[in-house]
Write a structure and sequence with these properties.
343 residues
């Protein structure tokens, strides 16, 4: 189980770094060939990949009727404004992937009995549209949900309560507030990755499950982290809160001193001192703050042969300290740091 979990985490990190998928990676090279006879005339259903229907980049205005047997439907990069009733009637219990990115869809133009009837859906990609609230299928098999670059301002509690297989949620570049997502993630037992960057959050999202390993909340209005917040997230490895409004008084003592964290990004905030971290942290980003002192106790409480910081990369550039601010014995504590940047 461990190698599989490690591989999945690597994939999630890679996807999160890219922010947006290139759907060519889902197009097998072996599928090239003539289209099947039951396919919509505006799309392609390759004979040697009969469960996929490609309708991407065709200037479509509406979603075409989907024939029986289709499991993977690609509709990205069109001019779709409306999803009419009945278009998914043939595949309500078959469709696995639905890709609707880069269109012009609003909630008002999604007919009842379309997406809300897809009981087998595993991946819903609905980014770069004009949604003002989330669109959630009834499928309990849903494992990936992407609604980036929309206008979503509310996310009612309970919409994801039965999504026991959901592992990844991407909601960056919306208009969400902390209150709007207050109960959005409760009940998710397998969630590994959550991206709520580029929203209007005042604090880190509440109610996230202990299974979470990646949390990105960059580019918000966060000015504090609640005491004990990370203690509830025993699996969290990657935390990004850059480009926010964090100040020293908004960080309780030891709030980041948790053993699970490997990467912590607090860059582009208003911190004046280096927060205390755990010796297990490996990547620490603090550039573009107002830090004016360097204290080794932020990194090491005790230095022995076996007790020292495992930090490898530390960024302190664009602050009010230089390499000369470091105490002479810093190398004993930061003995694994191969990259400490001041300039």
């Amino acid at each position: 189980m461990f190698p599989l979990r490690a591989t999945l985490l690597a994939v999630l990190v890679s996807v999160a770094l890219c922010q947006y998928d290139d759907y060519e990676e889902y197009r097998p090279a072996s599928m090239l060939g003539p289209s099947g006879p039951n396919c919509d005339r505006e799309c392609d259903c390759p004979i040697n990949f009969p469960t996929a229907m490609y309708c991407d980049s065709r200037k479509l205005k509406v979603v075409p009727m989907v024939p029986r047997g289709i499991k993977y439907l690609y509709l990205q990069n069109n001019q779709i404004e409306e999803i009419k009733a009945g278009v998914f009637d043939n595949v309500t219990d078959e469709l696995r992937w639905l890709v609707l990115d880069n269109n012009q869809i609003t909630n008002a133009k999604i007919a009842k009995g379309t997406i809300d009837k897809l009981t087998a859906l595993e991946k819903l990609f609905f980014s770069y549209n004009n949604l003002t609230e989330p669109v959630i299928p009834p499928s309990k098999f849903l494992d990936e949900l992407k609604m980036m670059h929309n206008k979503i301002s509310k996310f009612p509690a309970g919409l994801l309560a039965d999504k026991e297989n959901l592992t990844s949620v991407n909601l960056q570049h919306n208009r969400l507030t902390s209150d709007a997502i207050g109960g959005a993630f409760k009940g998710l037992k397998k969630l590994l990755s959550l991206d709520v960057s580029h929203n209007k959050l005042k604090k880190l999202p509440a109610g996230v499950p202990s299974s979470l390993e990646i949390l990105y909340a960059d580019f918000n209005d966060i000015d504090l982290v609640g005491a004990g917040y990370l203690n509830k997230l025993s699996s969290l490895q990657y935390l990004r809160i850059s480009h926010n409004k964090l100040v020293d008084s908004g960080l309780p003592a030891g709030v980041f001193n948790v053993t699970s964290l490997l990467e912590l990004d607090l860059s582009f905030n208003k911190l004046q001192s280096i927060p205390e971290i755990n010796e297990q942290l490996q990547q620490f980003y603090l550039q573009a703050n107002e830090i004016n002192k360097f204290e080794l106790t932020s990194f090491c409480k005790l230095v022995t042969v076996v007790n020292f910081s495992h930090l490898k990369h530390l960024r302190l550039d664009a602050n009010q300290i230089t390499h000369g601010s470091m105490p002479p014995d810093y190398s004993t504590c930061l003995r694994q740091a191969s990259d400490i940047m001041f300039d």
